[in-house]
Amino acid sequence: MASLNPPVCDFGWQAPDFSLQNIDGSMISRDLIMGKNGLLVMFICNHCPYVKAIFPRLVNDVLELKMLGVNTVAIMSNDPADYPEDSFENMQKVAHQMEFSFPYLWDKTQSVAKAYNAVCTPDFFGFNNKAELQYRGRFDESRKDTAPHSTRDLFHAMKQIAETGVGPKEQVASIGCSIKWSNL
Hints:
Elements lengths: L2 E2 L14 E4 L4 E3 H4 L4 E6 L5 H19 L2 E7 L11 H11 L5 E3 L4 H6 L3 E2 L1 E5 L5 E3 L17 H12 L11 E3 L6
Parallel strand pairs: 4-5, 5-6
Antiparallel strand pairs: 1-10, 2-3, 2-6, 4-8, 7-10, 8-9
Protein name: Alkyl hydroperoxide reductase/ Thiol specific antioxidant/ Mal allergen
Pfam families: AhpC-TSA (PF00578)
Organism: Methylotenera versatilis (strain 301)
């Protein structure tokens, strides 16, 4: 399992649209899920230790962001053939266990991950209400283990975007496991 860092934020880059199946069977698009003050699109999965380490804090931060008018969507793009823990059924289980308050979508063809140039889990894309990229950075300074008293980079960036429409100029790239691309 290789650790990867995504590229830095390309300010103003327009969020590609998508229409993906949520774990409840409904279809969710970018425009449907956009919040009045922004949208957080995050590429996550069930098996990655970097993602597992932040799940409880991520769930709490997303609830706070919702109160600021920022909606969130999680997308799982890994090929579950080699990583059964990332299957659709396991996505449903994890979302239920962790009490996700946001849609958890399956990018079965991996086309959305490619459109976003996502490279790892977690990979965070913070957009303002015009669907312009303003943040592509880390959740916080923790890695595979929870870092006590760590700064809430993602939360504070999204709060700033909600309030001003503009993300922080200084951003630290996320780190995580590579997306597991299909061989087909």
